[in-house]
TrEMBL record:
It comes from Flavobacterium cerinum. This is Uncharacterized protein.
Length: 145
């Protein structure tokens, strides 16, 4: 059952099991550099990924950071600042060229990229739930618009 969701520009969601969602975000994180805005996005993605070795408790659709702060696996990219949106989707597109469908991460990233490309053919849809913007500021990061 899907428990990780990334909202595309047209308001549709790409979804995967939590492990697939985490795997895709890890790939995007590794694609980003450590400098400037890429470094900020990379550190934020690292923050919103579970680290069970450091006490994070996985609950499927979310996890508890250090056992207390709930991090939902719902990422509405439309709520990201434009700079971070571009970096995020450019990383997905770059990875889609580098990876193949032969690996789980390649299959999922390429699937996300196809969904993103298809979403651009549809009208942009404004976010309906601005409360999801909270994820974009966890850990003191300012990823939201």
């Amino acid at each position: 059952m899907a428990s990780g969701f990334i909202t595309l520009p047209d308001g549709t969601d790409w979804s995967s099991r939590s492990t697939g969602y985490d795997l895709v975000l890890e790939q995007i994180m590794h694609e980003l550099s450590n400098s400037d805005d890429e470094g900020i996005l990379k550190n934020w993605i690292h923050y919103i990924l579970p680290d069970e070795e450091n006490g994070d408790i996985d609950s499927g659709y979310c996890f508890y950071k250090n056992g207390t702060e709930s991090i939902l696996r719902i990422l509405d990219t439309r709520l990201m600042h434009t700079t971070f949106q571009k970096l995020f989707w450019n990383s997905v597109q770059s990875l889609s060229v580098k990876l193949t469908d032969e690996t789980p991460e390649g299959f999922l990233v390429r699937q996300l990229d196809r969904c993103y490309t298809n979403s651009l053919l549809n009208p942009y849809k404004e976010p309906e739930d601005p409360d999801l913007n909270d994820l974009l500021s966890v850990g003191g990061f300012k990823i939201g618009r």
